[in-house]
Amino acid sequence: MKKIFIGMAILSAGLFTSCSDFLTEEPKQEQSNELTFATFDGVNKAAAAMYGMFQSDAWYDGEFTLMSELRCGNAKNPTSVPGSGRYRSDTQWIYSDRSTSPLWSYAYYTIARANNVINNLDDKVGKDATQQQVNNVKAEALFIRALCYFDLVITYCQPYNYNATEDDKMGVPLVLVTENGKPARDSKENVYNQIVADLLQAESIMADDYVRAGVTDKAATPTKPAIQALLSRVYLYMNKWQEAADYATKVINNKKYELAPADAYAAMFSAATAPEGGEIIFEVYGSDKNEYWDNSGWAHLPYITTTDDQGSHGDVCATKDLYDLYSEGDIRKSMYKQHGNDYFPTKYSGKPKDSDPKYTNVPILRLSEMYLNRAEAIINGASIQGVTAESDLRKIATVRGASQTAAATKQGVFDERRRELAFEGHIAADYARCNKSMTRKDFDDSKNKDVAFPSYMWALPIPNRECTANPNVAQNPGY
Prior knowledge:
The protein is mostly helical. The protein has 16 helices and 10 strands. Helices cover 37% and strands 6% of the residues. The strands form 5 sheets. The chain has a two-stranded parallel ribbon. A two-stranded antiparallel ribbon has the order 2-5. A hairpin with a 2-residue loop joins strand 6 and strand 7 (342-345). It is globular, with a radius of gyration of 21 Å. The relative contact order is 0.16.
């Protein structure tokens, strides 16, 4: 197994604390690693710390999502409000090794946490835990590790299906045991294969009805449907169409989930917890008990949400061409609040108790994505009995109140993904994996209005501090 000591990710007791809002009992704050991992209870509590960094504004609480939207035509900097000056370089694709996505450190921190859970569980069977208890926690950690590697590889690497040169084949360092070391980048193929292997193992060992005990939000830690949903997404990115369709179908056929009707759509994004019987499969739970809550990006950066238009800074709004993609009557169109000539999305407006975006839950996997994955897979040759791409697209259009169904074509699915998954961080990766050049309409900045595919720019630069600390990590070409 690959081993590494991740620069900042020193394995101290602090690495395994926090996330107290997930648990009825917090991990001990001054506990040595040996004591933490000596018992199943200690490892299980350490597992709760895997989720903490997801709520950082470098990841799902802001930057990871908004960089995608701003780069590829769903978002722009508004003109109707002054803003704070944030996110001015993203629309112009102005990146360097000193100005790039900060995801790297956060993801490898989280991988270190997951690795230490995975690698300290097997000896607990029969000692102070059953095989199934161990399997459930290990499956959680395998899911978390897979999600981290997936986000890393779609951020810092060329898409899976583009391998024109040896540089295009580079993935990220693949680390399964966290120890001292300075590893080189693994191949992209190896990284994707490890992601799939982790998810398949997690699916095979997690109990069908498992939900982490004591969680406030049952969708905030992985369940078996979440594992299957992520497998559908990963297979889609690998152009493994039948597998993508098969796993999407497993989730769609799970009676636990249903697409939100129009009158419940907006509330789904601001609910205190994921609605039971709804469409959110996995989400990041917004909480002031989380170690990264104070850095929550939604709190101070993008959207005017109050009735008097005096809310947050208003650094990011939707483009007019995204807004115009929605037909009249489409409930999704009502999720944009007009201010002057700008349209501000309201998906992340906070929970009902306080309406503070800082507390927003951020959906990562939703049922609607499974319909879109399956429709795209069928267009590309997959087959599911009794299902067509058109029927899946019609299902989404009907429940959202749209006046017309997207065309059952590659472009039709791409446009429907823009409508449905807007401001959820998918669009840049969608352009890349579809090997699709990006041409923007609503754009006023001076650089990189359009970005062709292929281009070195579709893989963001690895942070300078990582390349300096580890000379074996090769920087992406062009930076």
